[in-house]
Amino acid sequence: MRYLITLVLLGIALCAWCPWLEPDQAQKLIDQKITQLESTNQNICPIQTSPETLRKTFFGYSEKTSYDCTTTNNDFGVEKDQNVAFVTFYNGVIGVVSKILPTDQ
């Protein structure tokens, strides 16, 4: 039982450290997620990243992302927002902020 607990704790520590995930790879994963969001909906506001905010955190990397609807539509509710995107140790991307503009009926 003691061996199992030690093994589990070592596994958690390894996942928290995630040495297999490099900063360039994390940035690429965020960029791919943004490209996916933009390609699936043509009415999405432009999304920007801030590469200088890319930080190593427990279980992955984080980076600020933001959108700006003023470049496509000045009259639409919330014009700008930002969030922190998180790249997990298993290469998932969580929290990329986006805003979809309403289509003209």
Word description of this protein:
This protein is an alpha+beta fold and 105 residues long. It has one domain (2-94). The protein contains two helices and five strands, in the order ααβββββ. It has helices spanning 2-17, 23-40, and strands spanning 47-49, 55-57, 60-68, 80-88, 93-94. Strands 1, 2, 3, 4 and 5 form a five-stranded antiparallel β-sheet that branches. A hairpin with a 2-residue loop joins β2 and β3. The radius of gyration is 18 Å and the shape is elongated. The model has no long low-confidence stretch (mean pLDDT 86).
Topology:
Elements: H1 2-17, H2 23-40, E1 47-49, E2 55-57, E3 60-68, E4 80-88, E5 93-94
Antiparallel strand pairs: 1-3, 2-3, 3-4, 4-5
Q: Could you report the average pLDDT, rounded to the nearest whole number?
A: 86
> What spatial form do the alpha-carbon principal axes imply?
elongated
Query: Sheet bearing the most strands, described?
Result: 5 strands, antiparallel
Query: What percent strand?
Result: 15-25%
H/E series: HHEEEEE
Low-confidence stretches: none
Number of domains: 1
Radius of gyration: 18 Å
Number of strands: 5
Supply the number of helical segments: 2
Helix content: 25-40%
Distance between the termini: 64 Å
Task: Specify the structural class.
Answer: alpha+beta
